[in-house]
């Protein structure tokens, strides 16, 4: 049976007694619960592959609209199924929708937005992911899983109805040689004068799609593409190797072990509220301070908080020092960690990825990065669970600290600033 003391923050839902009873009834073991928590990531891999296969033929707008179906079915299975297989399938389908979104939404925003506001708009992608986590946590504090899932299922429907009226990416239309429609959409997005100027600038670029058979060869032939892909994979690595996903799934475990001040449920709500607030704050300042300074500050402070949390858990587990008087240190440090994580590490990678790739190769590049991110999330989350259970919580925390420190050095030396730069400027920087 599922042991509540060790259960991860499954489906990012705050579990109370009625939820434990349901999962005990379904006989979900601790190991199965950990895999259910990450079941979304194999779906993300499939979604990224789907996005890659259909990005050129369908365009980002149609792909984004298509996410409504797997998302809707996912919530209905989670809310109204009576067996654990349906929970896994529901999570997997939700992952497919997420994989398509992660591969196409940054591309779409990067292609329709002006450089001056591109950072703000692109950084809203992870912001809404955080709001989604907060939303479902609050719902499940108030309602049953069935009612919560029913309410959540309205979100993909609302997205479909509202996004249906958005224009297609002008860059994609130019790649399909639909110049007239591209010009019309640019005028809608930029206004008459700016739209025509932007159309002339984009028309001068070679945006025609490459053949599928030669796309990989052409992509890896250019230095700027290889460099951009290494940066994208590196940024996705930082997000996972600093423990962001693992700590999100297992935040209740840490709060439950230090529940003198706040209940685990209340602390988890605060955890996601802080993520939401500071992710929004980051979106407003990312174009002011730039990507590099904000990311470096975020990662530096994240590394420091991980070190404090690791030292605290190590001393608590392996020494006789009484930490009762400072037991609040662990949950407070975790909350501070998520504040600094939300200021840059959580938001900026997706933003930078939407800016650094040539539009011709962006579907391929973003799909590769999304697949890599999903596999890494599974590995790191399971690594966290296994080492926490087999050794101690301090071990994965020390590992995350070391990874973050190395990432800080690599980011400083190898990732360029993209703030307020056009596609041409960024490509020239990557060529050097």
Summarize the structure.
This protein has 432 residues and is mostly helical.
Describe this structure in words.
- The chain has 432 residues and is mainly α.
- The chain folds into 2 domains: 4-166 and 210-431, MFS general substrate transporter like domains (Growth Hormone, Chain: A, Up-down Bundle), CATH 1.20.1250.20; 175-209, no CATH class.
- 79% of the residues lie in helices and 0% in strands.
- The protein contains 23 helices and no strands.
- The protein has helices at residues 17-25, 30-37, 40-58, 60-66, 68-80, 84-112, 115-142, 145-152, 154-163, 170-175, 179-190, 192-203, 212-221, 223-241, 244-249, 251-257, 264-289, 291-318, 329-345, 348-356, 362-390, 394-414, 423-431.
- The longest helix is centred in the first third of the chain and has 29 residues, at 84-112.
- It is globular.
- Residues 1-22 have low confidence and may be disordered.
- It is a multi-pass membrane protein.
- InterPro entries: MFS_dom, MFS_sugar_transport-like, MFS_trans_sf, MFS_Trehalose_Transporter, Sugar/inositol_transpt, Sugar_transporter_CS.
- Keywords: Cell membrane, Glycoprotein, Membrane, Sugar transport, Transmembrane, Transmembrane helix, Transport.
- It comes from Sitophilus oryzae (Rice weevil).
- The chain crosses the membrane at residues 33-51, 63-82, 120-139, 145-166, 269-289, 295-314, 326-344, 364-383, 395-414.
